[in-house]
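INTERNAL TRANSFER SHEET
From: sequence group
To: structure group
Subject: Ribonuclease HII

Please process the attached sequence and return the structure record in the designated field. Keep the field labels unchanged so the import script can parse them.
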Amino acid sequence: MTVKTIKDIEKELLEIMSLEELERHPSYHDSRKGVQKAFTRQRKYIQKQLQMQQDYEAMCKYENEILTNHPHAIICGIDEVGRGPLAGPVIASAVVLEHNHNYIGINDSKKLNKLTRDDLNLKLQSNVTSWAIGSASPEEIDKLNIYEATKLAMYRAIQNLDVEPTHYLIDAMHLEDVTEPQTSIIKGDAKSVSIAAASIIAKVYRDNLMEDYHDQYPHYDFHNNAGYGTKKHLEGLKYYGVTPIHRKTFEPIKSLLS
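Return from structure group:
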């Protein structure tokens, strides 16, 4: 009987995606260290995939509860990015996921690395039923305050959708002018797949926008800090002053202008 090489076994194990099937593999009790390492590696990979699937199902909890009572509901997730920076607009995104969506690994955009976030952003934009961006400018933030400007950006995102949602899932906000049912979820970008999707699209959009602003205002390191008050940003303010995209009611901008 020909003994399989470790490389051959490794290739076979890569095709296995269940622990039960892994344990039934003919080489499961092969005592060679290379074989046992291959089994351990694939077992860890399968366990990780199973955990990610369970996490995804948990993130669909709010959506599934709505669909149980209203099977034809059009659920819209809404989130914002950019409430804390000293410069740039606040951006909101509204997203209606497609049926049978499956974005394993999705999470709050801040918890994802840039490569994963960019990849998910492209997949979402290509497949979801509808997505839209809403923005509130630095001038509007200064006039209204950041909380009201955030709501304005969210309303604009909703208005830019090409479908009319029947239920909104919103990250820690309440929109008074929305007539359809809404659910405000604290830390919703980590608890609802719809809000997480909105979080990703909003963040990638705003990060790209701030990179463009860096070309226009290169002394503030916008392409690295997205407008937040980092050391380089504050140094830029000290030596080059305030730009038209800075929020003039935010400290230390307000003090520099007084």
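Handover comment: The first strand starts at residue 75 and ends at 81. The radius of gyration is 23 Å.
Transfer complete.
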